[in-house]
Specification:
The complex is a heterodimer of chains A (136) and B (500). Helices cover 62% and strands 0% of the residues of chain A. Chain A is mainly α. Chain A is flat. Classes of the chains: A mainly alpha (136), B mainly alpha (500).
């Protein structure tokens, strides 16, 4: 007796076997002649410089967070818009309060200066300081 | 299909009427931020706003004491939740007041606006936990509280220890809340509901398989156990308590623990147990899983580990951290027995615990303000350099041990009485043995303050009059409620009745 989840389990197993079989057959059959050019990273034909392990500016996160808040607000506005007529003023005021609190967050960011990308005295990082690997 | 329209709106209005204290807290939080942004010159404007907000909250908490369910049965307003809200609010007010005196917080002209508004946000989260009866809401409220507490734990961010504490707290917190929500999802799969009462009804039928229920129950206990720092989910406690600013350590050890216990009691008794009858104040766990034994093991582990580790500590904040783990273990004993006397004992204990623990941390803060150290060795001779504060510290430490004329004794008395009445003699014996062990390390602090270092002639420490008065009030309360505990017990008795 198979439940619905049992069928999913079978799909899962068959899927894994299918992929694994393809990869393993390839590995057995294909010729293997690695050289330096073949193994290098392909990035749009550009030659790769340094390592991708660099420190990102923390301000990206702040901007992303501010963006995310308004993104989620939009998501919550949709169901409200659908039932707006039935709920009337109560919902309107509730939503105004909600939007106000989010807006306050934006003002907070603004007043604290998190939105200015150019700080008064920018410290320009040097490439060789940013790269963790290949320091020498 | 949810009814949308006039009925829905009127039900929301009714719910909002019962939700006034929480609403006031949210407004306080928002206003504190606005005030801090507008009046930048006044450093403590947010603190005064938050303090005023807390007093209004306290007024509304007692002014509109209607009980019942709100927001489609997800929130239960009753005397039980009101008691915990009172404890949390009182702790928050005391913490805000003693934060004014903290030196590390105001060091290097730090901006403290966010600090106070975050305390308001955390209080809101804890209020929500105390009254939620829906697993999703419990999870959300726990997160609301945790997010603020992560920030607060790392508020003195240029201190490496503090940032480390905050990061550890976040990582442990994320994992345990992940485990908890997985447990919630399994319970939802089993019973088809997030509502504790509906889950209770489903489990009562006895048709559920035991294994998933046990696993999910333990997973949820892990999430809540993290908040009350019960072993084996306590690993974050010593590091975070040591690294966080002392005011926040005190706050976490009392308020956040109170919220954890409120939700733990509600969750275990509402979901997994049922009152034997309307007249008998005893709960019975459903056949299948012996939750009493699981809780008993947790309790014994927690108090033994807390006490035995505390012996070896050389930092007083770590010592108090382990002692607070041990106290969580004692309080868990009251839940193990699942009688109304046990729950009553937990609530009484919590009131007393709040007084003594806040006091002890307060003295540690004042002394650290002057000496800049929290090491046990720097307490040598403090008894002669600051006799009044050291005297207060002795009262708090005796209270934490549970020696008669203090509040801690009454808490322990009710707890052990309830455990022995319920015939869990072995648990009571382990509890008493643990109290004896705890005496050793509390006395070690007193010995350092008074007996050692009498030959040293160091300058006496000067403290402001306000800070000494606050210490004396807290110490006085410890003795006062140790002698005159009857009104507290009577009030708590009313609160416990509302759980049935």
């Amino acid at each position: 007796m198979l439940t619905d989840f049992g069928i999913i389990l079978i799909f899962f197993i068959v899927g894994m076997v299918f992929v694994a079989a393809g990869l393993i057959t390839n590995m057995i059959l294909r010729p293997s002649h690695p050289n330096k050019v073949k193994q290098s990273t392909y990035e749009c034909g550009e030659e790769a410089i340094g390592s991708p392990w660099i420190l990102f500016n923390a301000r990206f996160y702040l901007i992303a967070l501010a963006f995310l808040i308004f993104e989620v607000e939009l998501l919550l506005l949709f169901p409200w818009a659908v039932v707006f007529k039935e709920l009337g003023w109560f919902a309107f005021i509730a939503m105004l309060i909600f939007a106000f609190i989010l807006l306050l967050g934006l003002f907070y960011d603004w007043a604290k200066g998190y939105l200015d990308w150019d700080k008064p005295e920018p410290i320009i990082p040097k490439m060789k300081d940013l790269v963790i690997w290949n320091k020498d | 299909m949810i009814d949308i329209g006039a009925n829905f709106v009127s039900e929301l209005y009714k719910s909002l009427g019962m939700f006034i204290p929480e609403t006031v807290l949210v407004v306080t939080f928002v206003v504190a931020i606005i005030m801090d942004l507008i009046f930048r010159k006044y450093k403590n404007i947010a603190a005064f706003t938050v303090l005023a907000g807390f007093f209004v909250t306290g007024y509304t908490l007692f002014a509109c004491n209607s009980s019942g369910y709100a927001f489609s049965q997800t929130i239960a307003i009753n005397p039980f939740s009101q008691f915990f809200k009172f404890i949390i609010l009182l702790t928050s007010i005391i913490i805000v007041i003693i934060s004014f005196l903290s030196k590390e917080l105001y060091a290097e002209n730090r901006k403290v606006g966010e600090y106070y508004s975050m305390i308001a946000g955390m209080t809101f989260g804890m209020f929500l936990i105390c009254s939620s009866t829906n697993l999703i809401l419990i999870y959300l409220a726990l997160e609301t509280m945790s997010l603020s507490s992560y920030v607060l734990a790392g508020y003195t961010k240029e201190v490496k220890r503090s940032s480390e504490a905050s990061l550890k707290y976040v990582i442990f917190g994320a994992i345990s809340s992940g485990i908890m929500i997985y447990g919630i999802s399994i319970i939802f799969g089993l019973t088809g509901s997030f509502d504790l009462l509906a889950i209770n009804a489903k489990i009562a039928t006895g048709n559920l398989s035991i294994a998933p229920l046990l696993v999910s129950g333990i997973m949820i206990l892990a999430g809540i156990g993290y908040k009350i720092s019960a072993a084996p989910f306590h690993f974050w406690t010593p590091d975070v308590y040591e690294g966080a600013p002392i005011t926040i350590t005190a706050y976490l050890s009392v308020a956040s623990k109170a919220a954890g216990f409120a939700v733990l009691i509600r969750f275990v008794l509402l979901a997994f147990a049922t009152p034997i009858s309307q007249t008998q104040p005893v709960w019975q766990v459903f056949a299948g899983i012996d939750w009493k034994l699981v809780l008993a093991i947790l309790s014994v582990l927690t108090m033994t580990l807390g006490n035995l580790s505390a012996i070896w500590q050389t930092n007083i904040k770590r010592l108090l951290a382990y002692s607070s783990i041990a106290h969580a273990g004692y309080m868990l004993m009251g839940l193990v027995i699942m009688t109304s006397a046990g729950v009553l004992a937990i609530l009484v204990y919590f009131f007393m615990y709040m007084l003594m623990n806040l006091g002890a941390f307060y003295i540690v803060m004042l002394i650290a303000n002057k000496t800049g150290s929290e090491e046990m060795d720097d307490y040598i001779g403090i008894g002669y350099r600051a006799p009044i504060l050291a005297g207060c510290m002795v009262v708090f430490l005796l209270s934490l041990t549970g020696i008669p004329p203090t509040a801690g004794f009454i808490g322990k008395l009710y707890l052990f009485m309830a455990v022995i009445d319920a015939r869990w003699i072995w648990l009571a014996v382990i509890g008493v043995l643990n109290s004896v062990v705890s005496l050793f390390y509390y006395v070690k602090v007193m010995r350092n303050m008074f007996i050692r270092g009498t030959d040293k002639t160091e300058e006496p420490l000067q403290f402001s009059r306000v800070s000494i008065v606050i210490a004396l009030i807290l110490a006085g309360a410890n003795i006062y409620f140790g002698l005159w505990f009857e009104p507290i017990v009577r009030w708590v008795n009313e609160c416990v009745k509302s759980l049935f």
